[in-house]
Amino acid sequence: MFTGIIQAVGKVREPEKLGNGVRLTIHAPDLGLEDVKVGDSIAVNGACMTVIEKTDTDFKVDVSAESLSKTTGLNTFGEVNLEKAMRLGDRVDGHLVSGHVDGVGLVESMEPVAESWRLVIRAPRMLSPYLAYKGSITVNGVSLTINKVEDTAMDTLVTINLIPHTVQVTTLKNLRAQSEVNLEIDTIARYVERMVSLQNDEDSLF
Known about the structure:
Elements: E1 8-12, E2 16-18, E3 21-27, E4 41-44, E5 47-54, E6 58-63, H1 65-70, E7 78-84, E8 103-113, E9 116-124, E10 136-139, E11 142-151, E12 155-162, H2 164-169, E13 180-185, H3 187-203
Antiparallel strand pairs: 1-3, 1-7, 2-3, 3-6, 4-5, 4-7, 5-6, 8-9, 8-13, 9-12, 10-11, 10-13, 11-12
């Protein structure tokens, strides 16, 4: 589990072809890899990955073809948001994040508003039941609060306000219109939607 609070921004150094997947070498001198061991989990742009090799400044992960088909930005060079798995007893400053990407969204706009930024994302329609005003969403591994939700026939427009600190310390500063982003819905919303749908199914039987 993770919290969606980014601990460092790393750089993908050497994407290597690995069957239908890819092996990534990520340069992360600011993450603090001294307490990381092979087999540990690290969220890379919101996707939970397993460390297979490490040095004091770099670590490697294997990304399967399945993961590549469900995510974006894990098979190219560039900056990535990083978070080590939380320990039992850690403070949850963001929200509970599983590191399992639910869908890929498309940035509609990323614009400065006074001292902040307004980020608008088109989320896949299948995620619409889990997106709510003042609810939580994870964007490229970053825990964020939804400020506005607008459903359309094809998708859902999600508006998020980004404070300067978040923009400064994450890769969200690199987002532009048409950028793809990894999205994870709130775990609590997932279970609530499931319970409500089952209750409705039971009610329909009587």
